[in-house]
Design a protein that fits this description.
CATH architecture: 2-Layer Sandwich
Structural class: alpha+beta
CATH superfamily: Nucleoside diphosphate kinase-like domain
Radius of gyration: 14 Å
Strand content: 15-25%
Number of domains: 1
Number of strands: 4
Number of helices: 7
Amino acid sequence: MVERTLMIIKPDATARKVIGDIISMVEDKFEIRGIIMKTLTVEEAREFYAVHKGKPFYEALVEFMTSGPVVGILLEGENAIKRLREVVGATDPKKAAPGTIRAKFGTDVQRNAVHASDSPESAGYEIPFFFK
């Protein structure tokens, strides 16, 4: 089934200037349907990550995600959500499979280079946040 999903290149990766390297890891696997660079406001980050509100890491996540520009990328392809999660790797870069984006560019659980939608429901919520 053809799906759309969202990947966000996080502030740690944009600061290290690896945007092109990360895009090159997905562009031959998916159709890129949109790219946008922006710096999230505190309100936008709180809304985007509302699912984590009340968790111990929530405030640090909001602070981190507003610390610099992010790149939102709309991707499309067969089983795109599951396939992108495989390309991205485990949340903890130390546990991510070799060759995945997080293994290559992540430094810790929070500064793990990218976010990727984890379900059709989250993709449905997250995509319109960046692409109207």
